[in-house]
Design a protein that fits this description.
This protein is of the alpha/beta class and 388 residues long. It folds into 2 domains: 195 residues, 3-Layer(aba) Sandwich (Rossmann fold); 174 residues, Rossmann fold, CATH 3.40.50. The radius of gyration is 22 Å and the shape is globular. The N terminus is likely disordered. It is built from 15 helices and 12 strands. Helix 8 packs antiparallel against helix 14 and helix 14 runs parallel beside helix 15. Helix 9 links the parallel strand 7 and strand 8.
């Protein structure tokens, strides 16, 4: 019988904004959460919460906002909200769910149920102003977006916060709901990950003659791709045989990349051949570079740690929640690449120290961020929902 209950499996209605069968939506978080909940013994029904056609009703408001150089958020519009409420009410009538699991602020605000679990990666204002500095003041319907966030938190029985940054931001903006906030990072979208013997073999196979760095991200500027290239250039100038593999973005657009850069382009991990190329690049990397200018959580770091790959990240947003300096990587400001190189260089020159750091990254993943860990937390939480 499932761990969550000696009785019948707990019934969960999982609401998504896109097709829950698509593993690429929102970094695969809905797809993998649903999959692991079912594997854990929960009876999960998945449904799309938001009627896609209702977003067209906001086109006039979007156009009007553009005329005055502002932005209108259609998913915070009153019409879309009302259409979503109607759709969710129908879904709830059909599902007979004990828990409603919401992966998005829109569904959490629109649903009405005594046991709503809402998994949140960032407060809406913090997200906009960190990803696009100064943009929040130009949102035409920002009060509606704030009200939507407030209602989502009021409706929720528990709010799962994907990072300490998100938890602190929500507590600051909604102190009356702080008792509902639970720290629960997302887990990575990996089919499998190496065991201790396999990761030791992978670490031993990483060449000292080719120091491989990996960058993963589609948004080149926000993810700090230029910083990744510059750091590798700095290390090469110091005589280190550093190379960079880039997955996702293509800033060169067909032109020749620097000779020390291998650009693999976008890899769709739902395709076996792309997933294999991704895992090969990850397994052979010495470090994952995540020098983001803004980041709500950073699932790529967890994927790296699962393969015994330490990470070098910036210290923004939710990234410090993941990084344990000296245990699974390091977090920097990345405003002084010489200083970052000073910190990294000794680990690249001392093979035994690097190998221990890499093994420690693998151990930290299994202690804090694996799906086994997250499922135990969700099982305990959802069992509380059943028991009142």
């Amino acid at each position: 019988m499932a761990e969550n209950s000696p009785e019948a499996p707990l019934r969960v209605l999982y609401l998504t904004r896109a097709d829950p069968a698509q593993s690429n939506d929102w970094s695969g978080v809905p797809f993998w959460t649903i999959r692991h909940l079912r594997a854990g013994g929960f009876a999960v029904t998945t449904r799309r919460a938001e009627p896609a056609g209702s977003l067209r009703l906001a086109r006039a408001a979007q156009a009007a906002a553009r005329l005055v150089r502002r932005r209108y958020l259609p998913r915070a519009s009153a019409l879309h909200r009302r259409c979503t409420e109607i759709q969710i009410r129908r879904l709830l009538a059909d599902a007979d769910a004990e828990v409603v699991f919401c992966q998005d602020v829109v569904s959490a605000a629109a649903a009405r149920h005594p046991r709503i679990v809402y998994w949140c990666d960032a407060p809406v204002e913090d997200l906009w102003d960190s990803y696009l500095p100064g943009s929040w003041a130009r949102i035409a319907n920002r009060r509606a977006a704030q009200a939507q966030e407030g209602e989502a938190l009021r409706n929720a029985w528990r709010v799962l916060c994907a990072s300490r940054w998100a938890q602190a931001g929500l507590a600051r903006r909604h102190p009356e709901q702080a008792h509902k906030l639970v720290y629960a990072p997302f887990a990575p979208g990996l089919e499998t990950s190496p065991d201790a013997t396999e990761v030791d073999a992978a670490i031993a196979a990483r060449s000292v003659e080719r120091l491989r760095f990996l960058f993963v991200g589609v948004d080149w500027w926000r993810k700090g791709g230029d910083r990744a290239v510059a750091l590798v250039q700095t290390l090469r100038a110091r005589g280190l045989p550093a190379e960079l593999t880039v997955i996702g973005a293509d800033p060169w657009r067909g032109a020749a990349a620097p000779p020390f850069v291998t650009a693999l382009g976008f890899l769709d991990k739902s395709r076996p051949e792309d997933a294999s190329r991704f895992l090969q690049a990850l397994e052979s990397a010495h470090f994952l570079l995540a020098p983001s200018r803004a980041e709500a959580m950073g699932i790529a770091l967890l994927e790296a740690h699962a393969f015994g790959v330490p990470t070098l990240s910036s210290d923004v947003g939710g990234l410090p929640s993941i990084v344990r300096p000296g245990a699974n990587g390091f977090a920097f400001r990345f405003d002084d690449l010489g200083r970052v190189a000073d910190e990294v260089e000794p680990w690249l020159r001392a093979r035994s120290a690097y190998a221990e750091l890499a093994r420690s990254a693998w151990r930290s993943y299994h202690a804090e961020h694996s799906w086994a860990v997250r499922l135990r937390q969700l099982t305990a939480l959802l069992s509380q929902a059943r028991n009142g």
